[in-house]
Amino acid sequence: MTGNLLIIVVIFRRRNANHFTDTLMGALAVADFVTSVLALPFPIAIRVPPTWLGELYCRVMFPSLLFWISVSASFYTLTAISVERYFAIVYPIKFSQLLEKGHVILAVCFIWVFALFEATFVFGSFYVEPTYYYCEVISKTVLSEFLAWVVILLSHFVLPIMIMAFTQGFSARALSRRHMHFDNEDKRDVGLSAARSRLLSAQKRVLTLIFVVNLTFVVCWTPDAVIYLFSSIGKVDSILDADSVNVNVIILS
Residue 197 and residue 183: Cα distance in Å, rounded? Predict the structure, then answer.
């Protein structure tokens, strides 16, 4: 929370610099900050009234809907940063001519709207149980659970990783070729050569930073994706039962 808040403050102070990457980095920091806040534990209601407020609680608070909206926004913003850097490095002239700061802000708004749209699936999956008044998930078949996992895996994991890998790879190759091209040019204009060298170094630093963030994303979310796969096909319980049966007995006693 502190780290993301510091990023937000720094980027807000230099908001007039009109750097597209700054806008996206700030949006990523906001999404991660909101995720960190919503990840804090909160008490769960044992009984829920069968009213519209109870239904709202079961559909929003009980499944941590806002948390997963911010997580989705973080995924897509991270992907957008890689795409933005790809076009800025591979097609710098067209990029500077066509893209404006308003377009980046519009893209961030679209990401959050899309994350909200995705959350409608979770919103419609819970209800207030009419007999004992607690939050209950709508019964689903194994096939529907598996299809839901496939959609979530593709949108939150596979496609972002593929896009990040593609854009990072081609961006790095373009920077390497540009560096070799400048090295082979006539070095009589020392000032121009130094300016080009500083520009390439800055682009490499940004690309390295994004690569580290993307790598952290893969390392942190791969276990979650694998566990969710086993859960969707009903294999997690069979894996955990053998090791946790004694723990369950202790908890129940």
Answer: 10
Looking at residue 86, its amino acid is Y
Confidence band, pLDDT 50/70/90 cuts, at residue 191: low
Contact 66, 60 (CB under 8 A): yes
- Cα→Cα distances 30→55, 75, 175, 182, 246, Å: 29, 12, 29, 38, 42
**What is the dihedral angle through the alpha carbons of 53, 56, 61, 64, rounded to the nearest 10 degrees?**
180
C-alpha span between 5 and 87 (Å, rounded): 28
Locate 150 and state its tokens. Answer: 């496939």
pLDDT surpassing 50 at residue 205: yes
Closest of 27, 55, 39, 229 to residue 125, by C-alpha: 55
User: What residue type is 118 in one-letter code?
Assistant: E
